[in-house]
């Protein structure tokens, strides 16, 4: 059964949405320096992660997961890639190093987000290393009263979304197999392959 948020929680989510718009504007403000843009990007990541975990249905309706990828990661990756490919750029090596670090941070973010989503929404994915084994977050669900229970299909979708972007980030993209996109990721040294069917089976 889908549990709808309280009026207070709805107000909080609306406030977070407005705050996200401010942060996105800051990130494109040419008057801000790199450090300020980085701070805004980190804040946007944290804010969108909170929205996805608190009320997944609301977040998906507002396309939070798409904004998260595009504004917090993809745009910066595209910019750095362009600078790194520019042979006339005297700082190509430095840019390439920054790109590698950013990709590593992006991979870490989506791995942690996937772990938290699976823990909070009780999604048991095949081959998933438990959060406690990675030392990321506890497997115990906390503050569940402040979390709106989503539909299982939404849980499947957001987990698939995380896996797809992990496949975009790391050099382990798998091809389409039939109608399923199989995304392979590395968890603490172990290889883990998951499909959409796996996600449907794991979402409870």
UniProtKB/TrEMBL annotation:
A Pfam short name: EST1
Q: Which residues form the Telomerase activating protein Est1-like N-terminal domain?
A: 63-172
Q: Which Gene3D superfamilies match?
A: Tetratricopeptide repeat domain
Q: Which GO terms describe its cellular component?
A: telomerase holoenzyme complex
One record GO biological process: nuclear-transcribed mRNA catabolic process, nonsense-mediated decay
Q: Name one GO molecular function term.
A: telomerase RNA binding
Protein name from the UniProt record:
SMG7 nonsense mediated mRNA decay factor
Organism encoding this protein: Propithecus coquereli (Coquerel's sifaka)
């Amino acid at each position: 059964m889908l549990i709808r948020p309280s009026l207070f929680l709805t107000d909080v989510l609306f406030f977070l949405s407005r705050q996200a718009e401010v942060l996105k504007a800051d990130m494109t403000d040419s008057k801000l320096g790199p450090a300020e843009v980085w701070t805004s990007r980190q804040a946007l990541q944290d804010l969108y992660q909170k929205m996805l975990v608190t009320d997944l249905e609301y977040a998906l309706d507002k396309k939070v997961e798409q904004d998260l990828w595009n504004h917090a990661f993809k745009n910066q990756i595209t910019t750095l890639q362009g600078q790194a490919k520019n042979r006339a750029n005297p700082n190509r090596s430095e840019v390439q190093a920054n790109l590698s670090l950013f990709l590593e941070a992006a991979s870490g973010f989506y791995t942690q987000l996937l772990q938290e989503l699976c823990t909070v929404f009780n999604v048991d994915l095949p081959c998933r290393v438990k959060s406690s084994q990675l030392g990321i977050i506890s497997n115990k669900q906390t503050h569940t009263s402040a979390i709106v229970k989503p539909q299982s299909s939404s849980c499947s979708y957001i987990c698939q979304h995380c896996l797809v972007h992990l496949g975009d980030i790391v050099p382990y993209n798998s091809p389409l197999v039939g109608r399923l996109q199989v995304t392979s990721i590395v968890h603490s040294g172990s290889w883990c392959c998951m499909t959409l069917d796996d996600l449907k089976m794991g979402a409870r």
